[in-house]
Amino acid sequence: MIEIQNLTKHYGPIKAVNNLNFTVEKGEILGFLGPNGAGKTTTMNMITGYLPSTSGTVKVCGYDIGEQPAEVKKHIGYLPEIPPVYTDMTVKEYLNFVSDLKKVARSKRASQISDIMETIQISHVQNRLVGNLSKGYRQRVGLAQALVGNPEVLILDEPTVGLDPNQIIEIRKLIKGLGKEHTIIFSSHILQEISAVCERVVIINKGEIVAIDTPDNLSRNLGNVTRFLIKIEGPQDDVTNVLGKIKGVLNIECNSKSQENVFKYTIDSEKDVDVRRPIFFKMAELGYPILELQALGMNLEEIFRKLTTKEGESVELQDEEKNAKIQDKQEDVELQKEKEEVE
Amino acid sequence: MLAIYKKELRSYFYSPLAYILIGIYILMFSLFFRGVFSTGRPFMYGAYLYQYSFLLAFILPILTMRTFAEERKNGTDILLMTSPVSVGGIVLGKYFASLTVFLVMTVVTFIYPILISVYGNLNVMPMISCYIGYVLIGAFFVAFGVFTSSLTKSQVISAVTGIGTLILVWFVNQYSYLFKGHLLAFANWISFFFRFREFVQGLFSSRDLVFFFSLTGLFLLLTMIVIEKRRWSQG
Question: Are A179 and A112 contained in the same domain?
Fold first, then answer.
C-alpha cells in the first residue's frame, strides 16, 4: 500500500531524514515513533507530497509521489500537526469546501459529510464557527477533514497532542476503529499510545530508522533477560531461597506482600532458558501454590530509551533496577487503564 | 481551482474586509468626483478616472494581502498543497476571487457616468477606453498583490510592500529626471501613468494590452514559482 525506499531529505547540510525504507500493508496501523525533531513530520510531509524529497521514492497505492502527485493525493487523507482549519467557516462549510477540493462527487457529498460527522462525533457543532471551537474539537474537525473522500490511506501527525486524557482515549479508539477500513500511519512521541493502537512500530531517531517490529517482538527481542512476575503463597524466605536455586534464574526480588503469606516476586532469567516449568513443579512439590504468573516484556519506554539515547547498557540496567518497583506499579496502572478502555 | 475561487470569494464577503474596502474606495472616489464636478467647468470623465485610479494602488494590495500570507500563518496551506489541486489552480483560484471583488468595486463606479449622461453629455467611447485601461491596471495590481502576499507570512508586510512598490512605479515619471539612457527608457516604459494616458486619449494599441496582460501573467507565474520554490527549500 505504501512503499518507502531510500527516502532522504536534506536541509542544506542537515540531514533531516536519512535513507528510510519501510512498507505499510493494506489495513495496517503503523506507529511512527521518535523523539521530538527525529524527522517524523518531515517524513509525513514527504509521503503526502507537501515536501519534495532530496532523493528516494514514495509509492502510495502503486503511484509515485514524484511522478503522479495528483493520483497519490487522491488516495491520502492527511492530518498535519496543526489541523489545517479555516477559523472563519462553520464545521459544515469547512467539510463542504474540503469535499469540493478533493473532488468528491456532488451526489455523495451530503451523505458522506454527515457520516463523517457522526463517526467523529461533531454533528452537534456542525453549525458553529471553527474559530470558536476548543482545541479538542478543532483536532476532531481536522481528523474529519482527513476522512473526506474516503481515502484508503490516512496519515495522522500526532493527532492526540494537546488533548485532555478523555479526548486522547476517544481519539485512540476512533483511530483503532478507522484501522479496520484504512491503512494508517500514525505518529506520536507518546509510547503507551503507540502500543495501545498500533500493530507495528517504526522507531526513528535523528532521521534514521532504529527499529521496525511489532511492539511485542520489540520488547521480547531487545531485552537481555526474560522477566516474570510471579505471586506465590508461602513464606517469603523459603520461597526466595528455593527460587534462587532453580537453573537459569538470575535475580529475584520480592516486591510486595499482597495478602497474608502471599508475596509478589519479579524474576529475571536467562533469555534462552524457560524457568516457568521448573518453578511450577518445585512449588507444587513444596505445596506453595502459584497464584499468578506473568511474563513481563521490556516495555516500549525502555526500548525507546535504549534505542534513542547513547547510554550504555550498564547504565540502562542500573536504571532498570532502581526503577523496577516504580515501573511495576506503572504497568499495573497501565493494565488497568487498558482494561477500562476495553470495557 | 473552482473550489478555491468559491471559498476565497465567500470569505471576502463573509468578512467585513470586502465591504470596508469597497465602501472606503467608493467614498473617496465620490468625494474627489464631487470636488471636480462642483467647479462647474467641463471635464472628461475618463480623465477623472485616470487621475484618481492611483487610489487602487492603496486599496488592492490590502484586498489581496491575506490571500497567501494568512494560509501560511495558519498552516492551512498544507491542506491545499496536499489536495489534488495544482499550484497553478490554487494561484488562479485566489487571483480570480480577488479580481472579482475588484470588478464589483468597478461596477459600483458606473453610477457616475450614468449620472453624467442623465444631466449632461457623456463621451461614451473615450469612457469605455478609459475603463478598459482602468480594469487592466487593476487586474495587474491584484496580481502584484497576490504575489507580495505569497512572499511572507505577515499580511502587514505584504500590504506595505505592495502599496509601496506600486506607488513608486505609479509616480516614476515624477522623478524620472534622476535617470538617464536605458534606465530612463525603462522608467518611461514601465510608467503606468504614461500607459494609462494612451487609454484616456483613446489611442491605446495592442502594445499596451500586451504590456498589461504580460505583466499580470508574469506576476501570477512568479507567485507559482515562489510557492513551488518554498516547497523545495523550506525547513
Answer: yes
Nearest residue on chain B to A86, alpha-carbon basis: B76
Chain B residues near residue A78 by CB distance under 8 angstroms: 78-79, 82
Tell if the CB–CB gap between A97 and B3 is shorter than 8 Å.
yes
CA atoms of A216 and B58, how far apart (whole Å): 64
At residue A302, the 3 state secondary structure works out as helix
Residue ranges making up the domain that contains A19:
2-219
pTM over 0.90: no
How far apart CA B141 and CA B64 sit, in angstroms, is 9
- From the centroid of its chain, how far is CA B207? 19
Domain count, chain A: 2
Reported as a single tens digit per residue, the pLDDT across B45-95 is 877 887 788 889 999 999 999 999 999 999 899 999 999 999 999 999 999
Residues A201 and A270 in one domain: no
CATH code for position A303: 3.30.70.1340
Domain boundary among A219, A236, A251: A219
Q: Are residues A187 and A45 in the same domain?
A: yes
Instruction: Please give the grid coordinates belonging to residue A266.
Output: 519479579
Cross-chain CB nearest to B82 (options A48, A86, A97)? A48
Domain co-membership, A241 together with A305: yes
Q: How confident is the model at residue A300 (pLDDT cuts 50, 70, 90)?
A: low
The domain of B30 spans 2-233
Residues A52, A183: one domain? Answer: yes
Cell output for B213: 496582460
Strand order in the sheet with A14-24: A14-24, A2-11, A55-60, A63-64
**A315: which 3 cell numbers?**
547504565
A33-47, A58-72, A288-302, B146-160 — which is least confidently predicted? A288-302
Q: Percent of chain A scored above 70 by pLDDT?
A: 86
Judge if A215 and A236 occupy the same domain.
Answer: no
Among B residues 176-215, those touching chain A with beta carbons less than 8 Å apart: none
Dihedral over Cα of B66, B69, B74, B80: its sign: positive
Q: Which residues lie closer than 8 Å to B141 by C-beta, 6 or more apart?
A: B56, B57, B60, B61, B162, B166
Q: Which of B190, B189, B192, B88 is nearest to B138 (CA)?
A: B192
Average pLDDT over residues B217-234: 89
What digits encode the pLDDT tens for the residues A128-154?
Answer: 999 999 888 898 899 999 999 999 999
* Predicted pLDDT of residue B117: 87
Give dist(CA B157, CA B163) in Å, integer. 10
Predicted confidence at residue A318, as pLDDT, reads 42
Please indicate whether, in this complex, the C-beta atoms of B79 and A101 are within 8 angstroms of each other: yes
Sign of the dihedral defined by the CA atoms of residues A38, A40, A45, A46, in that order: positive
